[in-house]
Amino acid sequence: MVITISDPLDMHLHLRDGDMLEIVAPLSSKTFSGALIMPNLVPPVTTKEAVNEYKIRIEKAKKEHTFTPYMTLFFRSDYTKEFLEEVKDDILAIKLYPAGITTNSEGGVSGFDLEELSSTLNAMSDLGIPLCVHGETGGFVMDREAEFIPIYEMLAKNFPNLKIIMEHITTKEAVAALDRYDNLYATITLHHLYITLDDVAGGLLQPHLFCKPIAKRPEDRTALLNVALGAHPKVMFGSDSAPHPRNSKEAPGCAAGVFTAPIALQALAQLFDKHGALENLQSFVSDNAKRIYGITPPSKEVVLEKSEYLVPEIYENSVVPMFAGQSLEWRVVRAG
Amino acid sequence: MVITISDPLDMHLHLRDGDMLEIVAPLSSKTFSGALIMPNLVPPVTTKEAVNEYKIRIEKAKKEHTFTPYMTLFFRSDYTKEFLEEVKDDILAIKLYPAGITTNSEGGVSGFDLEELSSTLNAMSDLGIPLCVHGETGGFVMDREAEFIPIYEMLAKNFPNLKIIMEHITTKEAVAALDRYDNLYATITLHHLYITLDDVAGGLLQPHLFCKPIAKRPEDRTALLNVALGAHPKVMFGSDSAPHPRNSKEAPGCAAGVFTAPIALQALAQLFDKHGALENLQSFVSDNAKRIYGITPPSKEVVLEKSEYLVPEIYENSVVPMFAGQSLEWRVVRAG
């Protein structure tokens, strides 16, 4: 069996910088047509210059592959409308992190004071710049996303013309919120479609599956699968592929993040195939994102075939992917 | 401030075997008067000979300290009354593991068929041998203990004269079950009084705090604290101190277990002191166990003083304790 995916898009991707960027950029650019690039570098990407310089580094690191890095800014509540007008054409969205909630998010938002956020969010709304949100409170790890839903609702109600993307959703509560507001959208990762907390900590502890938001309960995964496999029109694929060097994953104080970029399309094909939903993969992994963001990525056809693919144990002796050393049932036979 | 604890008892202890036994036995025997020794060796302890040979190895490894190892058998549903009569004086209890639920529990019980369990449990009841149970189902990791409560109830109802100890309880559901049946008792660990899942996976991942049953929610810890600090008469201290070599804790596939034996009394004193409950520590850590099990351990006075104690980073370059490299507010100044 063979399928062709046109212009696959990864609407939530961490490419990092420096040596790690050199390793991971070509692994995304090989099979994806474009990706939304997260801005949580050190320091975070908060200026027009930083956006464009980072974009140049990505363009160089992606090698010969056709691939558009859609850039983001790190949300700050003091961005002026003048600044946003200037930077508008260089970015596709702005990413909001609650302070300290994940890797390199220390400079994020503390508290969600409507007064404080309004001027930037009104400007974004006027200029048509979507807001991507890492929606977690500082509460108990299993409750953080569900507790954040009222903040999503507050934002959705107060800024009805602002497109708000609930990033890497992991709960049935977030899935339910999707349909309550016209301007709420969501990305879903590969790993949250596959795993629950049981896979991370139900048997032996698996640091390579440890991520934020943490994988949740079986009924949460079921809710995510329903909208992803069903090609819900407001749901997009965003891998949240988040590489860390092996030595920082395989030690106490292991960083959060699952590295999935190079195996994402293969594993998605396997999952959609298993559930008899292959006809919906194109929407989930490209068409929905094109429509929601109004983008036209460079044309790329990716041909996948149902035959065994052995996932590498590690890339460049540095980054361990999800399914390392295991077999997937689908392989990429051509991309370009 | 100084307190004296008489005859401290650890009613759930893993001493392992071989090199690990040599390392950890003296660390328990130094400050505890006795401990209930878990039988999940490879192979599990299932014969009179194995009990007595293991006891001899422990007596040797504990060094010069006064310390009674109370032995247990690994539960098998085919133990006969004749066998139990023979082994009765060599053991204090029998430990039941569901198959595959934790370290070296592969030979445990599959399913909880009353018919199958009855002959052994009736014999134990007749002979007055308590049943210690690792109470978890094979369900979702956060639900396993709560799901097991109906099995505890089935056992408590059908064997009203059998003392049943719910080992290392971690949930408010188990705490609630305690008072519903006269013959249900419980042990609580040090680590479950201190941590929730947030401490294991809420920030960076902490393998040295990864254990089974996994640490639960804040409201669960509160329920445990209430009965431990309140000296509930059916609750005993059982550390479930479970040493693993550092290299097996600090790698993917990290084994479950927190090593607390050498710092347990100090950390308990800190906790009870912080909550203004020092007067109840003697009941929790000794008197309740003496009464419930009807034992008279060798006399040992342990004097603790409120002054800084720096916990070692590692013991014998092999086992990392809870609070490694951190300061506790209480130290042991004399034990003997």
Quick rundown:
In chain A, 35% of the residues lie in helices and 16% in strands. In chain A, the strands form three sheets. In chain A, strands 2-3-4-5-6-7-8-9 form an eight-stranded parallel beta sheet.
What can you tell me about this protein's structure?
2 copies of one chain form a homodimer. By secondary structure, chain A is α/β, with parallel strands linked by helices. Chain A has one domain: TIM Barrel, CATH 3.20.20. Chain A contains 12 helices and 13 strands.
Write the layout of secondary structure elements.
2 copies of one chain form a homodimer.
Chain A: E1 2-6, E2 9-13, H1 18-29, E3 34-37, H2 48-61, E4 68-74, H3 81-87, E5 93-96, H4 114-127, E6 131-133, H5 144-158, E7 164-166, H6 172-178, E8 184-188, H7 191-194, H8 197-201, H9 218-229, E9 235-237, H10 246-249, H11 264-274, H12 281-293, E10 301-305, E11 309-310, E12 327-328, E13 331-335
Parallel strand pairs in A: 2-3, 3-4, 4-5, 5-6, 6-7, 7-8, 8-9
Antiparallel strand pairs in A: 1-10, 10-13, 11-12
Helix pairs in contact in A: 5-6
